[in-house]
Amino acid sequence: MLAVSNTVLFITDINRSAMTTMHSCDGSEQADSIPMIVHSLMCYRQSGESKEFARRAIESLVKKLKDKKDDLDSLLTAITTNGTHPSKCVTIQRTLDGRMQIAGRKCLPHIIYARIWRWPDLHRNELKHCKFCSFGFELKQDSVCINPYHYERAVSPVDFGSLSLSPENESEYMMVFKVT
């Protein structure tokens, strides 16, 4: 457990030093820190999206947040601690239709980043913002929170009342599981 904790701390320290470089140096050094942050965040990627798509989505996000140090720091804290440490909203500008384009694909930002870092099999109607999130997608504000730890997965209830086993199927199952 200590080794994992130290690894998270080490990556977080790298990210924070990259942010300091990004905000305190000229444009050339700023461009160099973006790939380092993207690479660090890619380490936490789930396997739902292709590696190339995830890299482009993360790179797009880091570029949008490059002038918002607090938001970038909150994102790094949320991702590198798997949401175990409280973090603030991480916001990006909402587009007219609420979607963003990544690698030629139109997608909802909060869904994409939740798929990348939390739930790779997530569907668009399964996310609901947490009560403490002030910029949840459903709130339709000018900015939208993309912090994946500010959303809960709201799985649709399954109607078991419509399911039944016919008598012939039931006997087949009984034969399969018969103890001899």
TrEMBL record:
Protein name per UniProt: Mothers against decapentaplegic 4 protein
Species: Paragonimus heterotremus
GO molecular function terms attached to this record: DNA-binding transcription factor activity, RNA polymerase II-specific; I-SMAD binding; metal ion binding; RNA polymerase II cis-regulatory region sequence-specific DNA binding
Coiled-coil residue spans: 51-78
The UniProt record lists the keyword Zinc: yes
Residues annotated as domain MH1: 36-160
Keywords per UniProt: Coiled coil, Cytoplasm, DNA-binding, Metal-binding, Nucleus, Transcription, Transcription regulation, Zinc
Record lineage: Eukaryota, Metazoa, Spiralia, Lophotrochozoa, Platyhelminthes
Family to which the UniProt record says this protein belongs: Belongs to the dwarfin/SMAD family.
One example of a Gene Ontology biological process annotation: anatomical structure morphogenesis
Localization terms from the record: Cytoplasm; Nucleus
Source organism superkingdom: Eukaryota
InterPro entries associated with the record: Dwarfin (IPR013790), MAD_homology1_Dwarfin-type (IPR003619), MAD_homology_MH1 (IPR013019), SMAD_MH1_sf (IPR036578)
One GO cellular component term noted in the UniProt record for this chain: heteromeric SMAD protein complex
